[in-house]
Amino acid sequence: MLARMIDDLKESTGMAVKTTSLAAVIAISLFVTISFLCAAAFVYVLQTAGLVQACLTGAGIFLLVALIALAVHAAWKREARRRAAESARSALHTALADPMLMTAGIQVIRAIGVKKLVPILAIGGLALGLLARRPPSDQVPAE
What we know:
By secondary structure, the protein is mainly alpha-helical.
């Protein structure tokens, strides 16, 4: 199980590096493209309407680009949260289904003893119940 987790970590790290490099190239190319388009729009509006209108056109274009980038970032963040929650559920299921973990749990129960383990489990269950009632940290109401 540990070897599989390490392999998954290596694979995800390699994929993250590749994705980040590709995103950096795309971002730089997009920045240069938008800069040239803004310059062209500025010159065109300057020649036809005047300096103030050309400046306002440039500001409008950059505002539009910023709003689009904000929307894309929000969508990526939402998707990342969804994937993280799904991955956490899958990892927990995999860990609980591992026979070695079950064997270790049985050995701990035998070593501690059932009579001593019952109060510990009761306190743990109470703590888990209290934590389950709390809203997630990103949905805590503001005071």
